[in-house]
């Protein structure tokens, strides 16, 4: 175990927080999965789901370990190569999205021969953020023109969002807002950002009008997320209101200290209790204390991302940490805000805590890249420390040799003086 821990490179605090949240996730996932076990198998035995979650977490840590060993500057080229492949996957997902529990879930595709569902938009987000960081770091020392950036930067961004938007508005909005934040930090001209924001809003409104006018042209989830926004703003009763009401009952039932691990009542009524609404179950079982503890862990992880970005020795490294770290925290805040009805239902999971294979693994890829950045800084610091030690050792050897030479010289003078005691007097005369 000691050898394994010493082999982990990069920011140890980030490693610790990730491990802590992953370990904590077993308790709420095991408790909340009893509802799924009852509906699918007729019994409340959730051991299968616990073992499945454990396997997914172990695979996730293996992904982090392998990815953080890759030098982070390699991802510059990888993002440029993989982005067109991601567009193909997104288009295929939009057209051939799989059916999950009888519902059209056009955000996922099923991997052949394995049977695992995979949400392509999460991979697209990682690749796009690295691609944007690559562009901004490449243009650091050259003036950016709107015409060139429109083709080199914003065309890939809008193509990616175009493929995600019809099936998943919340993810598309999250990706677009994170890209805007990233270019702002990367000192992209503010006047160009304003133009892009305006174009994005106009494009979204146009898409909504087209979807309303031709509902058959977008048979996936357009009507769903439009209805969610309408119901959130008008308080119409629907399925989402049912979920929110059950989530609020769970939070209210928890009180300050909670009902206790595994004693949630609303998990039996709340759909997606182990994924989208797991925060409500956490508060019900562990109270406001547990809810604030989870919130604090994400805020502390955000602080560590800021520290890691500040320490990064290159602009690309700084932007990668911000572009991949901040969306994890923003997604967590969105999930918690939905549970308390500050936002409409979005379908965003709680990173590192909710159950789900591909969502956990994509988060682990992002964390692996971040740790690769911090690993490089750690290696540079170690090299500098070793170089300093070598210089100090060399200086000590030089000082020792000089001291020995001085002593030898004094000793030789002393011997000569003893051999001819009149020589100093003769020299003076």
TrEMBL record:
Catalytic activity, reaction form: [GlcNAc-(1->4)-Mur2Ac(oyl-L-Ala-gamma-D-Glu-L-Lys-D-Ala-D-Ala)](n)-di-trans,octa-cis-undecaprenyl diphosphate + beta-D-GlcNAc-(1->4)-Mur2Ac(oyl-L-Ala-gamma-D-Glu-L-Lys-D-Ala-D-Ala)-di-trans,octa-cis-undecaprenyl diphosphate = [GlcNAc-(1->4)-Mur2Ac(oyl-L-Ala-gamma-D-Glu-L-Lys-D-Ala-D-Ala)](n+1)-di-trans,octa-cis-undecaprenyl diphosphate + di-trans,octa-cis-undecaprenyl diphosphate + H(+)
Record's keyword terms, sorted: Cell shape, Glycosyltransferase, Membrane, Peptidoglycan synthesis, Transferase, Transmembrane, Transmembrane helix
Biased composition (Basic and acidic residues): 410-420
Region described as Disordered: 400-429
Pfam families with a match to the protein in the record: FTSW_RODA_SPOVE (PF01098)
Bilayer topology term: Multi-pass membrane protein
Subcellular location per the Swiss-Prot or TrEMBL entry: Membrane
InterPro entries hit by this protein: FtsW/RodA
Enzyme Commission (EC) number: 2.4.99.28
Transmembrane segments: 13-34, 46-65, 77-95, 116-137, 157-185, 192-214, 286-307, 319-340, 352-373
Record PANTHER family: CELL CYCLE PROTEIN (PTHR30474), PEPTIDOGLYCAN GLYCOSYLTRANSFERASE FTSW-RELATED (PTHR30474:SF2)
Family the entry assigns: Belongs to the SEDS family. FtsW subfamily.
The name this protein goes by in its record: Probable peptidoglycan glycosyltransferase FtsW
Originating organism: Flavobacterium aureirubrum
């Amino acid at each position: 175990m000691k050898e394994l821990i010493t082999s982990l490179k990069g920011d140890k605090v980030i490693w610790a927080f990730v491990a802590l949240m992953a370990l904590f996730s077993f308790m709420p996932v095991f408790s909340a999965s009893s509802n799924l076990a009852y509906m699918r198998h007729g019994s409340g035995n959730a051991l299968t789901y616990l073992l499945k979650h454990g396997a997914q977490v172990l695979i996730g840590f293996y992904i982090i370990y392998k990815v953080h060993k890759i030098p982070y500057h390699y991802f510059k080229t990888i993002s440029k190569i993989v982005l067109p492949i991601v567009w193909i996957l997104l288009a295929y997902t939009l057209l051939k999205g799989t059916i999950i529990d009888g519902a059209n879930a056009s955000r996922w595709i099923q991997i052949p021969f394995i049977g695992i569902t995979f949400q392509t938009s999460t991979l697209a987000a990682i690749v796009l953020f690295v691609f944007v960081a690559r562009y901004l770091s490449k243009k650091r020392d050259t003036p950016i023109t709107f015409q060139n950036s429109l083709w080199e930067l914003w065309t890939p961004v809008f193509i990616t969002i175009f493929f995600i938007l019809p099936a998943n508005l919340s993810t598309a909005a999250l990706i677009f807002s994170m890209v805007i934040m990233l270019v702002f930090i990367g000192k992209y001209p503010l006047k160009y950002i304003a133009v892009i924001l305006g174009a994005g809003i106009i494009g979204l409104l146009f898409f909504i009008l087209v979807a309303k006018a031709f509902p058959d042209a977008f048979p996936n989830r357009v009507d769903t997320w439009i209805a969610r926004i309408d119901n959130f703003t008008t308080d119409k009763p629907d399925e989402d209101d049912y979920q929110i009401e059950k989530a609020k009952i769970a939070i209210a039932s928890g009180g300050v200290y909670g009902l206790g691990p595994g004693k949630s009542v609303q998990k039996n009524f709340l759909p997606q209790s182990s994924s989208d609404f797991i925060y409500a179950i956490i508060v019900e079982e562990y109270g406001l204390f547990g809810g604030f503890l989870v919130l604090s862990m994400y805020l502390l992880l955000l602080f560590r991302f800021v520290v890691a970005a500040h320490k990064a020795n290159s602009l690309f490294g700084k932007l990668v940490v911000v572009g991949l770290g901040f969306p994890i925290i923003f997604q967590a805040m969105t999930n918690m805000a939905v549970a308390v009805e500050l936002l409409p239902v979005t379908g965003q999971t709680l990173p590192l805590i909710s159950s789900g294979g591909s969502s956990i693994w994509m988060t682990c890829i992002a964390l692996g890249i971040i740790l690769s950045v911090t690993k490089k800084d750690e290696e540079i610091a170690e090299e500098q420390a070793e170089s300093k030690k070598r210089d100090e050792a060399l200086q000590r050897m030089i000082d020792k040799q000089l001291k020995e030479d001085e002593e030898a010289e004094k000793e030789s003078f002393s011997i000569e003086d003893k051999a001819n005691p009149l020589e100093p007097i003769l020299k003076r005369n």
